[in-house]
Design a protein that fits this description.
heterodimer; A: 147 residues; mainly alpha; 4 helices; 87% helix; B: 396 residues; alpha+beta; 5-stranded mixed beta sheet; 5-stranded antiparallel beta sheet; 10 helices; 45% helix; elongated
């Protein structure tokens, strides 16, 4: 274990040092600050914005789980995750489409329309799952009540 | 003075500790955000990153060949697969990376933030790993749509940071090896379907899996023919472009709209033995060959096409340039750009499949595809398939 850990850390230091060497030798010094800023901003944006929003969504789900039922909430959360990821990977195409490109063979999709359709489908799935799940919770409550 | 700073930092720590503690409690979900979940997602993310790294290094070696390392010319679709896989794995890494970070987010609020110098180094290496991972996938996605909004060159930065990323990943694995081994060795006692506060573990993994699968399914059609009907989110679409084939750079962008159609255009083939100019009619008079070869772009899209023209070996023979043993120098009419002049290692120059193409999919080469003549060789990135040829030089 000790050998494996030492080897991994050693190899890692070597690889990272080579990456640093490439930054120092292949990239103009005037660009270094930009790289540092982007790496720092990525951490801040994730840890300070994206992750807290996801935590907030989780806390919201926690509050309604009892009333709506676990399955419905899980499906709705899944739909939200899928929609958020598909939106995230399409943001560059949406922005670049508004900026325009003289090459007519790139950005050929209708990304806004595609995302709207995707969200509509996901919303429908989430609504159906939540309603079914809520009905089952109510039925279970009623059965428990009559017994 | 020292006493004052000490007192001040103690006061700050006193105020911060409950805040950090409540952030930790709000974000934590022990049964789901467990070591086991982190290892499960981390394994997939690690695989995606290693695929990206391997295929990325391969792509760089094709663009900047090492003289002592000959690159393979077969299978002809090899680069199409590796670079398609690079972008597919990078796309799948988006949900996997965010999922991985979700499982460990409460650990950001560890108190005290740093307990020792070793702990500080570990946290610093994780900061590098997280930041560089996020930047790599972000600029990768931006590059696919040619949105160069970052203040640094794409290729050199993406390549250098990839080494930093795998290095930080190896360090991370080294540091966390005991945790990983513990999860692998024995059942950790937690159930696979553990129910957490926010979501059950199965629900979480299913959501991440669905996100990764749908992201790949809706974009991979730009390089995988079977998925082309589902391609609604990728920047390119198979069959969309002049002569049914996408292009990376138009003739107008390359500034060759006039020089490419000039009446006095000739292709110069030079060698130590001398040089010879070929007009378009001269090239058409040479024996013509037809090959099915893919255009595979560094941006991940690819498509197979039928090319017709003169075999490069036949052209070099006609010019009495001799058999190439060193890289050919190939020049385009385009004045600007990193790929206006490229080198072709001898194994591609000698390959019978390598063409100086004059026709594409049954018609004269469109100007955006490189009219009057372009190079098409097996297994090379699209940027090396020089369009609007001007000069081919055999070096000794």
């Amino acid at each position: 274990m000790r050998t494996a850990r030492t080897a991994l850390v050693g190899i890692g230091l070597g690889l990272a040092a080579f990456g640093g060497f490439l930054v120092l030798t292949d990239i103009d010094p005037s660009r270094w600050l930009g790289i540092v800023v982007w790496v720092g901003a990525a951490i801040l944006l994730h840890d300070g914005v994206v992750a807290p929003v996801v935590v907030a969504v989780g806390l919201g789900a926690e509050r309604v789980r009892g009333r709506v039922g676990d399955r419905g909430v899980a499906v709705a959360q899944g739909a939200l995750v899928v929609g958020a990821i598909l939106t995230a990977i399409t943001v560059p195409a949406l922005v670049a489409s508004t900026l325009g490109n003289p090459n007519p063979t790139i950005l050929v999709g209708s990304y806004g329309v595609a995302l709207a359709v995707i969200w509509a489908v996901l919303l429908a799935v989430a609504v159906i799952a939540l309603r079914v799940s809520r009905t089952m919770v109510l039925r279970a409550e009623r059965t428990a009540h009559t017994k | 003075m020292a006493g004052f700073t000490e007192r001040a930092s103690a006061r700050i720590a006193e105020r911060l500790e409950p805040l950090v503690g409540s952030a930790h409690d709000a974000a934590s979900d022990p049964p789901v955000k467990s070591a086991r979940t982190t290892v499960v997602v981390g394994r997939l993310l690690g695989a995606a990153f290693l695929i990206c790294f391997g295929t990325g290094v391969y792509s760089h070696l094709l663009q900047d060949p090492l003289p002592w390392l000959p690159m393979p010319t077969r299978p002809v679709e090899l680069y199409r697969w590796t670079q398609g896989l690079h972008v597919i794995a990078g796309t799948a890494a988006v949900p996997l990376l965010l999922a991985k970070l979700w499982t460990v987010y409460p650990r950001l609020f560890t108190w005290p933030p740093v307990t020792s110098f070793a702990h500080f180094l570990e946290r610093a290496s994780i900061a590098v790993l997280v930041g560089v991972s996020l930047v790599e996938v972000t600029i990768g996605l931006m590059n696919l749509v040619q949105w160069y909004a970052f203040p640094f060159p794409f290729r050199a930065t993406h390549f250098a940071l990839a080494w930093v990323l795998v290095g930080a990943l190896a360090i991370h694995l080294g540091v966390k090896l005991p945790v990983i081994v513990r999860v692998w060795r024995r059942p950790s006692g937690d159930r696979a379907d553990a129910t957490g506060r926010f979501v059950s573990r199965r629900g979480f993994l299913a959501a991440v899996g669905a996100a990764a699968a749908s992201a790949v399914a809706l974009t991979a059609g730009q390089s995988v023919p079977a998925l082309a009907p589902l391609n609604v989110l990728a920047p390119r679409r198979m069959g969309v472009g002049p002569q049914g084939l996408p292009i990376n750079r138009t003739a107008a962008q390359a500034g060759v709209t006039e020089t490419a159609v000039a009446r006095d255009w000739v292709l110069t083939v030079a060698s130590p033995a001398g040089s010879r100019d070929f007009t378009l009619d001269d090239l058409r008079a040479l024996p013509q060959s037809e090959e099915v070869l893919p255009i595979a772009c560094v941006e991940g899209w690819s498509q197979s096409a039928t090319w017709r023209g003169v075999r490069l070996v036949d052209l070099l023979a006609a010019a009495e340039a001799g058999e190439p043993t060193a890289p050919l120098r190939i020049e385009s009419l385009q004045e600007r750009g990193a790929f206006a002049r490229t080198e072709m290692p001898p194994q591609y120059a000698r390959d019978p499949l390598t063409l100086v193409a004059l026709e594409l999919n049954g018609g004269t080469l469109d100007i955006d595809h490189g009219y009057p003549a372009r190079v098409i060789a097996p297994g090379r990135p699209g940027v090396m398939q020089t369009k609007w040829l001007r000069r081919i030089e055999v070096t000794s």
